[in-house]
Amino acid sequence: MKNLSLRWSDLDANFHLRHSSYYDLAAQERIEILDQYGITIDMMKAQNVGPVLFKEQCEFRREIHLNSKVHIITKLLKMKRDGSFWIIQHEFLSEQDKLHAIIKVEGSWIDTVKRKLARPVPDAILSGLENFPKTEDFEYL
C-alpha cells in the first residue's frame, strides 16, 4: 500500500484527479513494486528486457480531489506460469477504504535489443513476479 501525494498538476478543469493521472500514478507504483522484488531498472537494462503493456483499462467509481487522503494497492491478478504474460491490478482507495478507481494492465516483457517479446523470461524477473503481492483471486493462466 502506498499513500499518494497529489499535485495541482494532477487535477483537471473540474478540480478532481485528471483521468491520465490515475495511469501515471499506477505506472510509477508498478515500477517501484517491481524494484522491491528485484526487478530493478539496472537489472532490466543488463538483461536487455523491459515491461510492455498490451492493455490498460480504468474503471472510475468516485472522484478524487487534491486534498483527498488516498492510497493505492497494487497486486498481481493473473500470470502465465513462465512469467511471460501478466495482469496487474491497482486499486485507488480512500482512508475509509472506499474504492475510487481500479486499473488493470495486461503486459509482457520485451527484448529491448531484438524488439520482440522476450522468451524465455529471465529467472530474476520470474522470481520477482512469483514474490509480487497477489490478489485473493489470483490465478495462473
UniProtKB/TrEMBL annotation:
<comment type="similarity">
    <text>Belongs to the 4-hydroxybenzoyl-CoA thioesterase family.</text>
</comment>
<dbReference type="InterPro" id="IPR050563">
    <property type="entry name" value="4-hydroxybenzoyl-CoA_TE"/>
</dbReference>
<dbReference type="InterPro" id="IPR029069">
    <property type="entry name" value="HotDog_dom_sf"/>
</dbReference>
<dbReference type="GO" id="GO:0047617">
    <property type="term" value="F:fatty acyl-CoA hydrolase activity"/>
</dbReference>
<protein>
    <submittedName>
        <fullName>Acyl-CoA thioester hydrolase</fullName>
    </submittedName>
</protein>
<keyword id="KW-0378">Hydrolase</keyword>
<dbReference type="Pfam" id="PF13279">
    <property type="entry name" value="4HBT_2"/>
</dbReference>
